[in-house]
Amino acid sequence: MNQPLVLIRPRCENPEAARRLSQVLSYALEGVAAQTIESASALSPLKGRCVLFAVAVGETGINLEYFAMLQWIREHPGCLEGAVGGVLVDGAGELYTKSVGSELVFTANLAGCAFPGRPLVEGTGSLDNFIILSRTMETDRFGAYLQSARELVERMRAFAPPRFQRPKLLAVHASSHKTSNTLALWRRVQEQIEDRCEISEFNLRNGEISDCAGCPYTMCLHFGEQGGCFYGGVMVDEVFPAIRQANALVMLCPNYNDALSANLTAFINRLTALFRQVRFYDKALFAIAVSGYSGNDIIAQQLICALNMNKTFYLPARFAMLETANHAGDACKLPDIDQRIEQFSRRLLATLCNG
Predict the structure, then answer these.
(1) 272 with 220: CB under 8 angstroms?
(2) Are the C-beta atoms of 168 and 97 separated by less than 8 Å?
(3) What CATH number should be reported for the domain holding residue 117?
(4) 271 and 247, same structural domain?
(5) Residue 9 lies in domain
(6) pLDDT digits (tens, 9 = 90+) for 265-313
(7) Of residues 125, 127, 151, the one with CA closest to residue 58
(8) Which tens digit of pLDDT belongs to each residue from 39-86?
(9) Of the candidates 158, 181, 213, which is a domain's last residue?
(10) Helices (H), the chain
(11) Residue 195 sits in the same domain as residue 340
């Protein structure tokens, strides 16, 4: 993007708590033209801009100006249409940095902002979250923090998702075809995109996917480098090759007790072996989530944390279709559901397809 980067940095009541973040930003933005916004009252639509959110949350995870900004974004749908974002969260304790980051990404994404894979750089109070990375980078923990922040800015500014003549989609679910509202919505979406996409589908309901057993890192790395996993099975024989070939992953997620289902969680966990060998920065993440009562935001944020922040799938604007329906068949009878299905289908095609 040729326009100056926009730095949204909510004011922190405690200047001492913001000191380390200032150092990180100085390093990350060296040589980069940036416009800084520090208060909710100064916000305005930032359509098509490159936006870096940088939040100091101190010990408590609370930054009042940040919450005012979050409110403003939620009150202005479309204010980040076409924008590309990244997030820095700096804390004085060991908690809250990731929860603040995932909440912010979810809110900005609903407002139209896309995010590259691994869009969050977080600094806990101890920086122990950089122990492994510091060894890889051959530096100390703060050095790894600085380099990670700079790399995030570079990835944001260079973000240009690939487009395809006929993109390949992999849809993953663990639902019953007879009763699932989530699958019913997916079938409606599928009808609108199948003439322009090559679609594969995996049903994990049959129990063939065992969860990750937490093998030692070296063992996981060894099998991952060979494109496999110690436990083998359908994940290695069918799912891994499909993930490699796919241009987008579509997660079909009913809300089970405000969490992803066990089979979907096992699927995500088992991707670690493949992730040891290949990154997914060039693959999009989409989702359809249906709750019987409430909690779609929790499901969406779990997907963001696991697949966008951790496994590096990129997040298109408004990546998830989120609906509430209790009884079987209710989802397709919701008010204006045809319009929302069409909008989601159009966004998916616009993200992936040439022309």
Answers:
(1) yes
(2) no
(3) 3.40.50.360
(4) yes
(5) 5-158
(6) 999 999 998 998 899 999 999 999 999 999 999 999 999 999 999 999 9
(7) 125
(8) 999 999 999 999 999 999 999 999 999 999 999 999 999 999 999 999
(9) 158
(10) 19-28, 64-75, 97-110, 131-137, 141-158, 181-193, 217-225, 234, 240-245, 262-275, 296-303, 337-352
(11) yes
